[in-house]
Amino acid sequence: MPRHSRRYFVRVIQHPIHARSCGFGSNNRRPLDPPPIVQLFAQTSGGEEAEIRDSYTPFFVLHASLWSADGQEQRSIAKKDTRRGEVVQLNALQGVTVATPEHYRDTTGHYGYFLTFGDISVRDQGEYRLKFVLYNLRRSNFELRQHARQECEIMSDPFSVITPRQFPGMLPSTPLTHCFVQQAAQLPSRSKPRRRSASGSSSGDGESSRSQTGETFRSSTSTNPSLDEPQVRKRRSSSTLGPNKKDRKGKEKATDVDTY
């Protein structure tokens, strides 16, 4: 078989459904839900499925970019107005937008090479798609300053990015996400959905549980008003009382005790 007779392509096997807009800050952002997962395939020149060699996988890089819901316009730039009246341009996607193949077993028990995106957030609300472009660094000649060879590209299904006030909550993790997490994949995983309560906070949120624990700790360690300082000193001094000790000459020597 010729060296470059194989064709490599990808398929999106888990599409994002929604996400909470993260704005222009880096705190308290939420990734796409569920996390996008893409699988790598290889075909021969005759269209038959081919095996992917382990030594080739480190040379594949999959890049994700943000596009409009119809897939016609790129939306990779987000604009922000400053107090001085200036316009600052930032990347519309925040997080890790590249992935390399990892060898996992799917929910059917079959092994394959998958590329996961567990840390991607979108700054502005709207309807979007993700465009995935697969590059093959092995077929690039960097000595001649050539660009990495593009093998293929594919679009995800449309998904919604919602403001934090209107965001309904994170969905429970899919069986595929749980399956990959058990194999040490870096993906967000949860067993129950997070729903917003009437007060605006997410039910089951870790921050609220930590604050409740702190209140319990402070109430259990509060001082007893019946134990004032003199009584504490008296207890400490009484605990030092003991039988009279004899010196080397056989005479009894009383132990000095401070009294209050």
Automatic annotation (TrEMBL):
Residues 2-190 form the Velvet domain. Keywords: Nucleus, Transcription, Transcription regulation. Residues 249-260 have a biased composition (Basic and acidic residues). Gene3D superfamilies: Velvet domain (2.60.40.3960). Residues 184-260 are annotated as: Disordered. It is found in: Nucleus. Residues 198-211 have a biased composition (Low complexity). This is Velvet domain-containing protein. PANTHER family: SPORE DEVELOPMENT REGULATOR VOSA, VELVET DOMAIN-CONTAINING PROTEIN. Pfam families: Velvet. One of its GO terms (cellular component) is nucleus. It comes from Bifiguratus adelaidae. Residues 212-226 have a biased composition (Polar residues). InterPro entries: Velvet, Velvet_dom, Velvet_dom_sf.
